[in-house]
Amino acid sequence: MRTILIIGAGRSASSLIQYLLNKSVSEGLHLIIGDLSLALAEKKTNNHPNATPIALDIFDENQRKNAIEKADIVISMLPAHLHIEVARDCVVYKKHLVTASYISDAMQELDEACKENNLIFMNEIGLDPGIDHMSAMKVIDEIREKGGKMLLFESFCGGLVAPESDNNLWNYKFTWAPRNVVLAGQGGAAKFIQEGAYKYIPYVNLFRRTEFLEVEDYGKFEAYSNRDSLKYRSVYGLDDVLTLYRGTIRRVGFSKAWNMFVQLGMTDDSYVMENSENMSYRQFVNSFLPYHPTDSVEIKMRLILKIDQDDIMWDKLLELDLFNRNKKVGLKDATPAQILEKILGESWALQPDDKDMIVMYHKFGYKLNNEERQIDSKMVCIGDDQTYTAMAKTVGLPVAMATLLILNGKITTPGVQLPIRKEVYLPILKELEEYGVVFNEQAMPYIGYNPDKVFR
Question: What InterPro entries has UniProt attached to this entry (predicted)?
């Protein structure tokens, strides 16, 4: 039996563990599932004979090293900043490593040691990053093999609520880390390139500069810009591309409504609010509004946001119960962002019967035989239930598939890497189709953004 150590048994590990357990007999696999919570690890093994749950504290050096030494390959589903000690131990004990996280500078520094020891450290092999890389490189490589020159690449992805569970005015529920949603777009201006011109959107304007997308059978969506669209320009071989843009997908109207929180300052995570523990929701809102001796919180809110009482924006705020004077924040020394997250969590939590949805959309503009062309590639994945969500499926399955390909010698290139080579993306994308992760590619007329090629 070949031993796979899985560190972290949270929500994202559900589909990953199920996939490997289903393959465990035919592939001769034994899974060691380690988590700080033994109960959670036990729950994920589901009493399978080829799985052993263990309590694993990665800050306990002896525990961590002992578990890694016994494995043939390690999967880390820990938060990104916790991978590095696991990775260093994998170098020491000569074990391959798979993660779904972005490659950090510390991880990249292990590249030479990995190559010297013929080790594969596969990173960014989840959804975004992960499936986005693989599905994009497949089409980009096909265009280049035909002799085409890339002109435009846009990539959008979003974790949303499935249509049958979409029952609030925001058309949104938390399907993944709520904190990441509240803090989205912060930390610097969004930057991208459009028709050869560099463009920048400061955070204060981010949610009012959106692009619209249409997905057959699912309707209209919008996307706001990711913070750094240029990060993968060289990685994808797109240094000369005229347009490069990456964005996050939401239903139309979400960004305009979210911008109310941004303008008020409720998404700020840089300071602590005094007496936050005893503060009511209404007091929290009033903290961001000017003093007035007679106007109510509601009136001040509408005035400062310039919205009327019959505006759908106002209805969206009322739906969140923001003005309740009896509900307490209950968080000690909390930032505005933490308080907002708590309030939103009550309205946007997935209910037991809810399903989530992943939408991914790529646009490829290129020139071939002196003709400008475009391919649009779209993928929609709906979750099964609250355990095997679309997010867990699209994050966990590529991790599991890459792990098995490495074990079976199908992925052989050593080093710290992301899944942009054919030996990685071709078999994984093909197998993902069996699980409902299917990209529909469609030839489109190339429009671009600057038909007259004059004003930029």
Answer: AASS, NAD(P)-bd_dom_sf, Sacchrp_dh-like_C, Sacchrp_dh_NADP-bd
Residue type present at position 113: A
Angle at alpha carbon of residue 357, lines to 217 and 376, rounded to 5°: 50
Query: How far apart (Å, rounded) are the C-alpha atoms in residues 252 and 450?
Result: 24
Cβ contact 415:115 at 8 Å:
yes
Instruction: Give the DSSP H/E element, type plus range, for residue 443.
Output: strand 440-445
Residue 232: pLDDT above 50? yes
Structure tokens at 202: 């400061």
- 388 in Cβ contact with 436 (< 8 Å): no
Type of residue numbered 366: Y
CATH 3.30.360.10 domain position(s) in the chain = 131-258+352-389+437-454
Answer for the pair 322, 281: CB distance below 8 angstroms, yes or no.
yes
Predicted pLDDT at 456? 47
358/162 Cα distance (integer angstroms): 8
Is the domain spanning 131-258+352-389+437-454 CATH 2.30.30.30? The answer is no
377-428 pLDDT, tens digit per residue, is: 999 999 998 888 999 999 999 999 999 999 999 999 999 999 999 999 999 9
**Phi, psi angles (nearest 5°) of residue 142:** -65, -40
Place of tokens 């589901």: 46
Instruction: Please state which of the four CATH numbers 3.90.1280.10, 3.30.465.10, 3.40.50.720, 3.40.50.2000 is assigned to the domain occupying 2-123.
Output: 3.40.50.720
Sheet containing 2-7: give its strands across.
51-55, 29-35, 2-7, 73-76, 96-99, 120-122, 415-417
Does position 455 have pLDDT exceeding 50, yes or no? no
Residue 49: cis peptide before it, omega within 30 degrees of 0? no
What's the average model confidence in pLDDT over 178-206? 93
- Span(s) in the chain for CATH 3.40.50.720: 2-123
Of 407, 432, 396, 357, the closest CA to residue 159 belongs to: 357
